Every structure is written in structure tokens, then in C-alpha cells.
Amino acid sequence: MNYDLVIIGGGPAGLAAAIEARENGVESILVLERDRELGGILQQCIHNGFGLHRFKEELTGPEYAERFIMKLHELSIAFKLDTMVLDITEEKLVSAVNTVDGFFQIQAKAVVLAMGCLERTRGAINIPGTRAAGVYTAGTAQRFVNMEGYMVGKDVVIVGSGDIGLVMARRMTLEGANVHAVVELMPYSGGLARNIVQCLNDFDIPLLLSHTVTEVRGESRVEEVVIAKVDEQNRPIEGTEQVITCDTLLLSVGLIPENELSKKASVEINPLTGGPVVNESMETSVPGIFACGNVVHVHDLVDWVTEESCRAGKHAALYIQDKLVKNDDPMVTKAENGVRYIVPHHVQTDNLVDKLTLMFRVDSVYENVRIVIKNNEEKIKSIKKRHLVPAEMESVHLKTRDIEKLQAGTLSVSLELEEVVQ
């Protein structure tokens, strides 16, 4: 079986990449999705707030996904559901299995990795206590409640203030549960400000910053959890313990890009993001293998996933058409002074048409700062920001006039934060 382009994942990233590749001249495209329907995580996100940037209107997750699914059908792009991809080689040989075709292999000219991300579990954060039933990741609980029709509990404590946890605090409340608190280890929330307001403040759900769960108690089912304040080193402070009676503990303690397949294809992984190292075209370290969406780095808005994935789909098409420039001396982006990471990691200016988008997250909360972009220590752009937080991804667009300032043979582009002198 041969296809010009194989896309691993039929969520928002994979759908956008497939559509963009078709609209840029690739006819032979196959999308492989392991779930029973297209749309990925969006299908269980029945709350609104999606599409404000992309469509200039507020949609639910399924509504946002449906627009891309309908476009996929309109363009007659092939896809396989209930299909698990087992392996990808550097030569872009994809091995997969499903109940219809059995085991099969596809030779592709290019591959787009769009597998999304995984939730951190209780084991990843080492919460002590008994192994009682009633401990769920927030995303698992969301699927049970929104898609499968099961109520996971009535008295709930949520650990972590990521967006899924905040949304589930509201969802569980609307379904009749008593959400006692959202407990956050850091001194700031891990979710969007709008979700704190709409999901916690509007329902009088407490957000306990600089707190953690120190013990889970219960035999067959969770009966209570112990929480405590933490110090600046995130260690529980003795004497601050509180016991909360509950039957359910939801974990919203971070997402991890899902890159087992990427590693099998010998794709270089960035240790900070947990995703592939990519260039301005979203191409990985393996020529012809592209990556986009949460598999590269965790996004807070699906609109940004779509934008990034369109870029991957377009450049995958250019690669197949042998129109993508490749040289051995690309520019390297470098995160400095308050910036945790930047995507893309490498830039080849020959492939830039009208702009270069740099996406990044800061490492703490900052007030009244400047985002400064430098090329070989020479400042080329500066943007003032009143407020920056790790939970919200930032982006800087370098337009044609900025790109023209980049010196040939440049080794680094850096972002840094400077305090604004008042």
C-alpha cells in the first residue's frame, strides 16, 4: 500500500494538516485514527470557547471538529478508524493494525505526526496513600461523563489547575456533584484566566494555591484525602494538613506529548517540551517526517493547534513536490531569561514566505515586561506585555521586514524578557 502522505492521528491537528495538504496539491492522503470517530479530544469537550480566533465565533469542541470532518469528506480524503499505528521507520514505512485489514504496512513519501498528548497519572506525581477506586485523570472523567454517560463520583477534589481540571470542576458541579476544592501545587494557576473565572469563581469553588494532596485514604473506594500547604521548595508544611471527605479524586497535573512512535522513527526529542525538534516548516530531524499540535508541545487553544498544523500540512506538500529548501546550516532559536522554550527550534529562512511565527511559554508570572527578539545579540523586535503567565502560550510574528534583518549565517535567535523601566 502506497500513499504520498500518511497522517497519524485524526484529531484537530491531523485533520487540519490533511486538509491543508490536499489544498496544496497532494491527492494521495491517508489519515489513521485509533479511536472510533474522527475529532480526537474535541469530541468529549462539549463546553464552548473553541474557534474564537479561527472562526471568530464561539463553538463547542464537537462543533469545531465537525467543520474539519465535513471538509475532509468534501475533499474525499481517505481515513481509517479503529486503527493502531505500531511503528514508523526513518524510511517512512508505517505499520498499523485494525479489525478490517488486519496487519498492514504503508509506504509514504511523507508522514505527519499528530498523535496529541497524554495525561500525567497518579504514579507520575507520586501521591501517597491507598490504591482505592475513585482516582481518575480529569480527561478520563470527562470522557466518562460527556460521552459514555457515567457519573464518576459525587464528592470531588481536583488536584492541579490545568484547563481540563478547571472545566471538569464546573462540569461535575453542573451534574450535581459537590466539588470541594481545586488544589494547585504552584503559587499560580496552570489554566487560562477565563476558565478560572467561568469554572471556579462563578460556582464558588475554592482554588487553593501552594497546596498539595499528601495522602489518599480509603479501602474499596476513596473516602478522604489529606491536603497541606507547601513551602517555596514545594514541600508540605507540617501542621497545615486538612482532611477532606470525598469519594473521587481527579488529577489535572499536566500533559505529555505522545511520542513513542516518534522515537521509533529516530526523531530527535526536545527534553523541555517532550516533543520533536522541529523547524519553521514543522519538519522533524528526520527528512519528510513532520509533526504538529500537542505532539510537539502542549497548546492551550485548539485554534493555535490548527494554525500550526496547517503549516505542517502545507510544507509536507512542498516536501512531496520537492519544493522544500533544505540546507545543513539552519538558524537555531534559543530561549533565555524567563522564556522556558521556543518552537520552532531551527529556522531556514529560504522556506519563509511572509512571516515566521515563534511560539513560547514563560517560566513564571511576569508583570510589565518586554519580549525582546535578538539576532546575534542585535535586537530586531521588542513587544511590551503587561502580564505573562506559564499557562498561556505566547507567540511573536516576524513579518517580511523583520525576516530581512536576519543576517546570513546567523546561529541563534533568542527571546528574553526585560523589566520595563517606569
The CATH level-2 architecture of the largest domain is identified as 3-Layer(bba) Sandwich
The helix/strand class is alpha/beta
Radius of gyration: 22 Å
CATH homologous superfamily caption of the largest domain: FAD/NAD(P)-binding domain
Question: What composes the largest sheet?
Answer: 7 strands, mixed
Global mean pLDDT: 92
The CATH class designation of the largest domain is: Alpha Beta
Strand-residue proportion:
25-35%
Percent helix, as a range, is 10-25%
Number of domains: 3
Report the count of strand segments.
27
CATH domain fold name of the largest domain: FAD/NAD(P)-binding domain
What kind of assembly state do the chains in view correspond to?
single chain
N→C terminal distance: 64 Å
Based on Cα principal axes, name the global outline: globular
Runs in which pLDDT lies below 50 for 5 or more consecutive residues are: none
What's the number of helices? 9
Task: Record the SSE blueprint.
Layout: E1 2-8, H1 12-23, E2 29-32, E3 48-50, E4 59-60, H2 61-74, E5 78-80, E6 84-88, E7 93-98, E8 102-113, E9 117-119, H3 122-125, E10 135-137, H4 138-148, E11 155-159, H5 163-174, E12 178-183, H6 193-200, E13 207-208, E14 211-218, E15 222-229, E16 242-245, E17 248-251, E18 255-257, H7 260-264, E19 289-291, H8 302-320, E20 331-335, E21 339-343, E22 346-347, E23 355-362, E24 366-375, E25 378-388, E26 394-399, H9 400-403, E27 412-419
Parallel strand pairs: 1-2, 1-8, 2-5, 8-19, 10-17, 11-12, 11-17, 12-13, 20-27
Antiparallel strand pairs: 3-4, 6-7, 7-8, 9-18, 14-15, 15-16, 20-22, 21-23, 23-26, 24-25, 24-27
